[in-house]
Amino acid sequence: MDRTMRKFWILNHYATTPKTGPMLRHYYFAECLKEKGLETTVFAANELHQTGGCVDTLGKPYLRTEEEGVPFVFVRTSRYQGNGISRVKNMLSFFFGLLRICGGYAKKYGKPDVIMGSSAHPLTSIAGILMGRKFRVPAIVEVRDLWPEAIFSFGKVKMNSLVGKMLSAGEKWMYIHADAIVFTKEGDVDHIREMGWDTEHGGRIDLKKCYYVNNGVKLDEYAQSMKRDILSDPDLESDSFKVVYTGTIRPVNHVGNLLDAAKLLKEHKNIRFLIFGGGNQLEELKKRAENEKITNVALKGYVDKIYIPYILSRSSVNVLNYSQSQYNWSRGNSSNKLFEYMASGKPVISTVKMGYCILDHYQCGLSLEEDTPRALADEILKIYNMPAEVYTRMSENARKGARDFDFSVLTERLYQVIKSVERD
User: Which end of the chain has less Cβ packing within 10 Å, N or C?
Assistant: First the structure.
């Protein structure tokens, strides 16, 4: 390891450890980077996103923990619920909390050689740039969700409004002043071109400093869990053709579409739909299945995440169920679920046709041109009636493709980004 690259700080508002939540991308990076001799510290908010939980900082501005040798710093932030003003205040409290504690933390534990600010929202990346200036070290911006484009796509703010223009100006500033930019979706760099911010269009952003490091899966842990964490369920053990969905049951996930497809396939007695997950639409869909006598669907409810590898391994095909209209899918997919599906070694059906399509690239699944129950039912039948050798090849392609998204591979890509910004 180069002497100038001893310490790496990652800032991610919503990061967790295995004990505090499921947002483990940066915990896994920290684990793997340690093997390369790089000490990585993750800074996150003590208010745990979506779980309602909280890490007690014992009345101090932050709490430092170590889980399996990974330093985690939980920054004290304000409480919030939902997506209203309290969440905005929580974002601001994390931003200012980082700036407030970083100097004292560096004096106690050593200053960083490189900082990476990871956005779900851009304030964290902006904090990374400001902290990089304070310590005179490079700052990497990681973009896991394009803000404010995501806000514009949901219609919450108009792009040409005053607020929209201010958000876009902040995003542009962030990209200009980053020493490197990491996108989790392969096509997100197209956004910079479309906005005319790159040097080829007269802007100030050199696309050579843009990199692609998607989400992924720890294949060794996944394989162990598949054999160890077995969920006893007769439906999983049956010889039926099992169409499996795992995830939240809420309107945005459009799970009702699966019930509609199941109704169209009721005459195929060997095809069963198994839906695993909890959410505010679960009871409604259970009643619908009962009232409409959709007997080839089983809504299983919430299951612990440790059982997901086994569940997926028992499927015949796994479904990525998205709405085509509520998101810009032209830039690709960075869903953790996709890589878990691939790691199970079973074909995948996506209800949207995406740009930079990973299913097409690895020939491990099918995508719908239109998001209708009939289209989904037809693709399920296509895999159901597929010759055994074609099905086996598609399954093997899924397993092989997952290797490119193992965290050891992703960490090597991130490590190369870190090396690209190091200063003598």
Answer: C
Q: How far apart are CA 297 and CA 94, in angstroms?
A: 43
pLDDT tens for 93-125 read 999 999 999 999 999 999 999 999 998 888 999
Distances, alpha carbon 17 to alpha carbons 63, 74, 120, 151, 258, in Å: 13, 10, 17, 28, 33
Q: What are the sequence ranges of the domains in the chain?
A: 3-216+406-421, 219-405
pLDDT score of 168: 82
Signed CA dihedral, 402, 404, 410, 412: sign only? positive
The reply to whether CATH 3.30.1490.20 applies to domain 3-216+406-421 is no
Task: Taking the CA atoms of 167, 183, 180 and 1 in sequence, report the sign of the dihedral they define.
Answer: positive
Distance CA 373, CA 264 (A): 8
- Two domains, one topology: 3-216+406-421 and 219-405: yes
From the list 104, 89, 100, the residue with the least C-alpha distance to 127 is 100
Q: What is the side-by-side strand order in the sheet with 365-367?
A: 297-301, 271-276, 241-246, 317-320, 348-350, 365-367
pTM of the prediction? 0.92
Tokens found for residue 205: 């952003």
Q: Under CATH, to which class is 219-405 assigned?
A: alpha beta
Do residues 40 and 67 lie in contact, with contact meaning Cβ atoms separated by under 8 Å?
no
Quote the tokens at residue 214: 């998607």
Cα distances (angstroms) measured from residue 117 to each of 41, 124, 128, 349, 399: 12, 6, 5, 33, 32
Is the pLDDT confidence value at 255 over 50?
A: yes
Is the pLDDT at 146 greater than 80? The verdict is no
What is the distance of C-alpha 186 from the center of its chain?
13
Give the pLDDT confidence of 154-213 residue by residue, as tens digits.
566 666 777 767 878 889 999 999 999 999 999 999 999 999 999 999 999 999 999 999
